[in-house]
Amino acid sequence: MDGPPGAPGGTPPPADFVDREAPTGLLPDPEAPPSPGELPSFELLRLLPPEALADLARALHPLRHAAGDRILAQGERAAALHLLRAGKVRVEAAAGEGVTVPLAALGPGESFGEMSLLTGEPASASVIAEEECATLALDRGSFNDLSRLHPSLLRAFTTMVSRRLRVLDEAFAASRAKERDVTRFLQEDSSGPIPVLVGREKTTRDLDRRVAQLAASPDPVLLLGERGTGKELLARRIHASGPRAALPLLSVDGDRITETQWGDSLFGDYHRRDGRLHPRGVCTMDLAEGGTLILRNVESLPPAVLERLARYLDREGAGGVRRRDVRILATHSGSPGGGGAGTGVPRNLPPALAANTVSIPPLRERKRDIPELARHFLEKHGKRLGIPGRRLDDDALGKLVTHDYRHGNVRELEEAIRRALVLSEGEVIGAGEVFLLRPGEEGGGKGILQVPRSVVASVLRTWPGPLRWGVAAFFAALVAACFLAPATAAGEAALLLVWGVWWPALALSFLLLGRVWCSLCPMAFAGGFAQRLAGGTRQVPGWIKDREPWILAGGFLLILWIEEVTDMRNSPVATGFLLLAILAGAVATAVRFPRRTWCRHLCPLGGLAGACSTTSMLEVRSTPDICGAKCTGHACYRGGDGAPGCPMFHHVMFLDTNRDCVLCLDCVRSCPNGSPRLLLRLPAEELWKDLRPRPEVGWLAAVLAGLLPALALVRIAERVPAEPLTGWLEERRFATLTALLAGMTAIPVLLLARRLRAARGAGEADRRALVYTRLAPWLPLAAAGFTAWQAAFLPGIAGIDTRIGWNTGEGPGETVLSSGVLPVLQGAILVGGLLISLVIRMRQHPRGGEGGEKGALGDTALGMAGAALWFVVVTGLLLGATTGAAPGPWALAVPAAAVAVSFRLTLGFRWR
User: pTM for this structure?
Assistant: First the structure.
């Protein structure tokens, strides 16, 4: 059986056979003439009759070209038509001296040079061999002879040229249509309603009049202002109010314009200083022809582009390039000044911009515009989001007005309103649904270590859901034992667990782990269950939020007073009533108000936990970049993926304090972007890094400063004769305890109230903030004192002693040092609290004074001395109560005086 043509032992191939699958790297012999059978492989010759192909084959000359050979030169008449037999060539055009533009790449079966051959015009492009090539050349004379002999050859050439021209025409038409679409888009984008300038401030009205004057002028304008003040909106208003309103309006950022060897995207072609032209395709100025160009952040333009902009604004040519008719409106995120020669224009900018400079004041300097701006954004975004008719309550509006907007000015306000609309659950938007970044805040924490996500994922399987049920069942059993079996071993066990285990563990956990207990709290769990049944949706009254620090501190004082007056630590029934009272408050609040209103605003234990949580080593913080780029549904606040929203009315992106975080990790469950992180930080790091005023911390510190010495005195009087206090307690316990606790607590509380009253007048807010900032270092020490006092009720700890000595083996050993465990533990806790307080006070030093560096140093020293004096007094009293040391007649006078002096030292100098 014969094999394929050309195969060994097969039939020899015909003379005109061309193997189309032969490797292209094997070039035909340049001396071998083409056969008529090879020519139909070229698209140009595919339709020619056989007789024409035979004559054409005899007229074609095989040629070989080395890689890099210029087969056809731009600007010269082509001497021949070339049919590419093998290899690859590139087609390129010279657009200027030293600059070439690639047009096409051709391979076997294609042709070039036919246009120049037909028309006699110079070639419009060059053809260069990319690799070693073989072509078949047809010279002009042979082509003319064959055209007369075979008209079909001329028709084939004409058809091919016409087809290529048609393709070029279609591409040109598509390009023109695209250009018209771009122009129409630019015109439509700039032909909308004139942007509104909202506000009632005189500066805003003056700004509006200034815009009206500038709109009619063709001159450039420089708009100066902080980020987010509305510079681009003002520029659009200038354009929309002027004669170019129906013409294109483009806005480009100076950061995106770079200088390259091709020129820049703003001006396009230009001549370099050596005279060479740098061509470029369509540029921004071409697109804005006849209209307006907004140059955002003009200070970011490269120096060469700024130079060209200066020449353009000075009505000069740019290296011979055609000057476009475009009005320039530039924005600069700064303020006037420093330009030299009295121009008032920021440095490095074209002086021509000085003629029309508009300064836009920041939003914090036009506070009266905020309510009107807020209503405008509510209406704008309410219509867009399909939730019209929402309004801000007075608290929310007050929160917006008092904010400084240093992160984004009007843009920050608009984003806050848009976010509040998405988060709101009713017709009225409350202050709890308005989230704003504080000045200097980055929106996320760093910590010293991030808890691995694998560990967090393991914790989420059991925290806090299943554990809540177990804790709730255990507390139900405790309450039942208190009421049903008060005189039995079960009642005694309930007392021991509540006062000997639960209370001390709470105090210690608040210091180290923040509000972890609040996630497991059975009172909050019962409140949540009642809320699911009743669905409390009423907003929290403003008076509760305004008086929250006093409510929490007063509630805490009330609980401790009830404990002492009723001798609750020895009464199961009284203990049961206390637990039920807290439970009733949580349930009643949950039925009426949303989420954990009780925990955040009313719970006395929650108030203590919230204040002490600022010393915690655990925190949940967001990843700001993720929140800013990916967050659209705000699942951390609203809930999602089966997890509820934040029970404490918070958005994790704005969570910057542990006070309102119960570490339930619901935000970790609900966030689809993985933004929330669980971090470890240094103890009390929040207090020295964040010097915000904390009224709840200040008032609680004042209460504890007087309450703890009083409680220690009561414990001393109950253990040893301490006349006259012991006698008074035995004869009139209610009156004595009430007077002692109220009197000692009133000393620091009244000093704080007097200090706040003295802050009235000029700079009242700043002075009050300084008072609360000075009290923040007291919290670790006061909380440590409360924990040390609670440690005395740990089961059996009072009977444990430690001894240090030696034994020689002969007789009983000799004791050198003997001490109970309780005094050592209390002393260690108090020393730790004192050290943390002193560190915080030292960290606050650079910003803690009122009279310069000398005043700051004295203020810091007095604050540290006050904390140390209180430490000495409380440590002595607690150790006296533990060891049973009998005090003298000074038992009341000295502690009271020491508390007054120590707290007065902390509050600092008088106002000047």
Answer: 0.71
